[in-house]
Amino acid sequence: MIPAAFDYEAPNTIDEAVRALAEADDEVKILAGGQSLLPVLRMRLAAPAKLIDLGRIGELQGVRTDGDMLVIGAMTSHYDVQRDPLLNEHAKLLVMATDTVADPQVRHRGTFGGSLAHADPAGDLLAPALALDVEMVIAGPRGRRTVPAAEFFVDYFTTAVGEDELLCEIRVPKYTGWHAHYEKFNRVAQAWSIVGVAAAVRPDGHMIAEARVGLTNMASVPVRARGVEQALVGQEATPEAIRAAAEHALDGTSPTADGNADVAYREHLAKVLTSRAVSAAATS
Amino acid sequence: MRITVTVDGTRYTDDVEPRTLLVQYLREQLGKVGTVVGCDTSNCGACTVHLDGHSVKSCSVLAVQADGSEITTVEGLTRDGRMHPVQEAFHDNHALQCGFCTPGMIMQSVDLLAEDADPDEQTVREGLEGNLCRCTGYQNIVRAVQDAAHRMRPGAGPEAERVADEPAMSEQSRAEVRQS
Amino acid sequence: MTATADSHAGGEVGQARLRKEDARLIAGRTRWTDNMSLPGMMHMAILRSPLAHARINRIDASEARSMSGVEAVVTGADVADDQGSLPCAWPITEDMKSPNAPSLAVDEVNFAGEAVAVVVARSAAEAHDALEAIDVDYEDLPVVLDMSSAMTEGSDLVHPDLGTNASATWVFDSAEAGTGGSADEALAGAEVTIHRTFRQQRLIPAFMEPRSILVDPTGEQTTMWSATQVPHILRLMLAMTTGVDEHKIRVIAPDVGGGFGGKLQVTPEEVITFLVARKLGKPVKYTESRSESFTSAHHGRDQIQKLSLAADRNGTVTGLKVELLADMGAYLRLVTPGVPILGAFMFNAIYKIPAYHFSCTNVFTNKVPTDAYRGAGRPEATFAIERMMDELAAELGMDPLEVRERNWIKHDEFPYTTVSTLTYDSGNYEAATARARELFGYDALRAEQAERRRRGDTVQLGIGVSTFTEMCGLAPSRVLGALSYGAGGWEHGAVRMLPTGKVEVITGSSPHGQGHETAWSQIVADRLGVGFDDVEVLHGDTQSSHKGLDTYGSRSLTVGAMAVVQAADKVIAKARKIAAHMMECAEGDVEFSGGRFTVRGTDTSTSIQEIALAVFAAHDLPDGVEPSLDSEATFDPENFSFPHGTHLCATEVDTETGRVRLRSYVAVDDVGNVVNPMIVEGQVQGGLAQGIAQALFEEAVYDETGTLTSGTLADYLVPSAADLPSFTTDRTETPSTTNALGVKGVGEAGTIASTPAVVNSVVDAVRHMGVRDIEMPCTPMRVWRAIHGGAQ
């Protein structure tokens, strides 16, 4: 099918994009990689009057270091994230989660920032971003502001990005030497996650010195499993200790039912997959 | 809007509506009907083409987004009457039945082999996860891709599709391109 | 004497010839219907009902009609007098209830997705834009979705004018038919009885090429290109449905991207496009989107199967009773009512069952109509009986292969007439099973399974068995007549020798991926002694292939190729007469081999190509011989063919998450003689993927309002390469005795056999945890619930 007609603008700078947003009426949609938006438009589930395409803005591309932080341009493709040496060294969890997103063609077009701003609770990058305490840099008519991941995800498909704003950078603390794993559970390779668990641990000998755990699709927003993290710290990475910690996985979750999983099954999966994700991270 | 693209080695400048999908532009305006549409949710991959050297689903790219780009479709793989090694391998391994998924499957396979010149079975299967086939059960497709890998000389991936007479890239510079 | 099956001197048959079809398809030089464009062509888009059951009070299309580029808006009322009722060719009983089936709804919609109005515009985009401007005033009617409750007293009705939701009930009883005893008596007196209810979920054929139709009304004939499996049936039915003269219609099936039964249909979209193009006098094209396809093209399966099996303690089956409910959806399409009836003959499968009772009630619901999907009735039957054999084995503590062997027809007992009246001509279940066991490593896997159970591993191993047969080669016309089907089961073929010695073969079978062009070329090359590349196979156009019954039911080779063989033999017979005349000898002294006619005992000979040229010149032909070297034949099989096989499947079941992983799959099939082993293997592999998909992944799901929630490829889970393993396939060859080629058909075998093999394997993996059955598809949640929730 064919989308309903819309106007199109492709600014070359962030400032131009912000101006274009300010000038547009409220039926504007931002086009990042388009891998979620274009199917929606084709099915005519949405019919914005205008698309503002961020694809021509060079300053939104790429990954760089800024002191202790890594900075990911919002329009950096999944493909580039997967292969970025900085991310592979300092934020492996993001790379591992990105490996599971959709398929190779979609990863060529889809973008890191686009996935976060789309805020689909079944999206695989939200929980890792939350677990790693990334910060979102949002540009708007009043300049730039930084929002921590914990405040960024508001509800289903809703973030802290205002209607006249755009997500331009994601700042990631370096997790150098941490071990990570993203455990995705879905029914076929292309399908969205039923539940996903993002885990990163900092080992200290046989002990777990620090842990970060986030859950995908266990609420309307990604969930930080702080109870699990706390239970892991200072523990030896034995299967028993990890299983015991994973019992806390449901803290703060509010899962819903769908055709693939009812609430009880989703809750069960969250615990099992948390245990598996942490084990895999700890033994990697 | 006016766009300029190079498709299978030919340059085109055209006016398109912003809502025109790349695949529609290819099929309806350029007559490149070798690339087909199989779904509306970007799951089937039948519409896969290469956009600036990478596989994309041309149903999920607007023609205006491709302005200034170089596009290769299945129709551009055959050079001087000679089929691409992946095409040959699809024929020799009976990797198609009805053939509707084949253009996308071949284009994704070429991309996959550019990423990994000697993939094992699991790598091939995962590399084709965005392309659905209803006829073959995939077994012969996987076989064909691995067979093509053995046939292909260095540089037979998307980079080799550049129509301009650029010198073939060395293995080292290819590796650098991938790292960048 | 004429050439026979044993005179294939050329040796093409049996070779893994690479396909002629491929060159275009791999280069993108294709002729899909949607690729075509004609001068002045308009585009059509269809407005579909969002509601499952509603009265249409009013349609306001005035705004749409005034929009840019819009040529016409057509509603049901506009075509009410012309559109007739979509055909159902299979009235299974004399009192079958069948509702009127308009192509465009007139005053009522009966499923979500039913066509309500169409827009014809200059571009597809403009047509879709205008759809959104059409205002339909619907009045909700009660929705009937569940088959079982649809059959209860006082249920709401899909078609109140019919007075019931039951379309028909069809019964077979071996005691009444005189083919066996009473199943009820067998059950009453049995040492062991097994009772199970299985659900065949609703499936979507999901051919890769969406349906597309182009109608050109500007010629003397109205020409329709359609992505159909059945161009010949379509032409006939268009004439009968719309009243347009048959000889004024030409139907072409160009390249067709898969069907699997899903394009075995005369569709509302075809009738509408036909009527609208003729009304406007302009070419009109319609191409569906995938999501439209899912909510309007027919679905498959959807049965509730209640089985009772009687046996003695040795594992010998003494009786079988089958009671089905089959969901028709909202209307009876081309062969909708007959699909479950095809299964009636297959529940007894490869087994000597002495007493059998079958009944099926066809039920209307407010859903997309069901109809043929790969296997059509036979996968359902095979699934149920193969599940029951495993359950019997478990009940008796026997090995499932041993139980099967105890009951199957031994290879020296063929031909064997079954309790359901079919006569199986040949088979060797022992050989196929022995080979499968060996390839699978059956005993080693059983040992590993026992070890894992003993250790209490998180991941348990299951072994699933499916020993199946199917009736192929649809079909002997007299059998179809006895089943009240509206047509015969013959097929047509023609062979034309051209003056240069090249050959045109015309087949009434209509391929869409099967490789007819290659296989028919191999057969004809051998038959006539000409080169493989000297044969061109023409099909799928009612102008060149004027007669045919098309492609479905694994019939192409067993019926369609047999017609071509008979036509080729007629050509040879005629050429022999001319050869004798040319070589001045008696016809009886002429031998034919390898394309040459030789005077017996001499070195005097002439080639079939020389004869073709001589016939063209026609200067010196025998008296009474027409100057043509072409012939046609129509083959009506005397019996079905009965491919069979043994499939073994190993799955690993994660008991913590319920996830199933296919570990290994062995399929040993016996499809009789093989024309092209490469194509046969490809058919089996593809069939396996579809059968496995039913077992594990696919399900068409409706919500309580009658909305299809699995309405896109994002929700209806067709497996990708990453979701399937490689299969081990092999063959035994027991030639069919019902056709001269000795072939049996292979299109549906993999699909039929694999679904029970997989589900048996999954159940076997967790049977020791108290599981007796898992509903399809065996999703992780269902498997987990079966283990931990005490379900079933």
TrEMBL record, chain A:
The keyword Hydrolase does not apply. The keyword tRNA-binding does not apply. Pfam families: CO_deh_flav_C, FAD_binding_5. Residues 1-177 form the FAD-binding PCMH-type domain. One of its GO terms (molecular function) is FAD binding. InterPro entries: CO_DH_flav_C, CO_DH_flav_C_dom_sf, Diverse_Substr_Oxidored, FAD-bd_PCMH, FAD-bd_PCMH-like_sf, FAD-bd_PCMH_sub1, FAD-bd_PCMH_sub2, Mopterin_DH_FAD-bd. Keywords: FAD, Flavoprotein, Oxidoreductase. PROSITE patterns: FAD_PCMH. This is Carbon-monoxide dehydrogenase medium subunit. It comes from Haloechinothrix alba.
Automatic annotation (TrEMBL), chain B:
SUPFAM superfamilies: 2Fe-2S ferredoxin-like (SSF54292), CO dehydrogenase ISP C-domain like (SSF47741). Pathway: Alkaloid degradation; nicotine degradation. Signal peptide: none annotated. Residues 1-77 form the 2Fe-2S ferredoxin-type domain. Keywords: 2Fe-2S, Iron, Iron-sulfur, Metal-binding, Oxidoreductase. It holds the Pfam family Fer2_2. Residues 151-180 are annotated as: Disordered. GO terms for molecular function: 2 iron, 2 sulfur cluster binding; metal ion binding; oxidoreductase activity. It comes from the Bacteria. This is Carbon-monoxide dehydrogenase small subunit. It comes from Haloechinothrix alba.
From TrEMBL, chain C:
Residues 27-142 form the Aldehyde oxidase/xanthine dehydrogenase a/b hammerhead domain. Keywords: Molybdenum, Oxidoreductase. The keyword Oxidoreductase applies. It holds the Pfam family MoCoBD_1. GO terms for molecular function: iron ion binding; oxidoreductase activity. Transmembrane segments: none annotated. This is Carbon-monoxide dehydrogenase large subunit. It comes from Haloechinothrix alba.
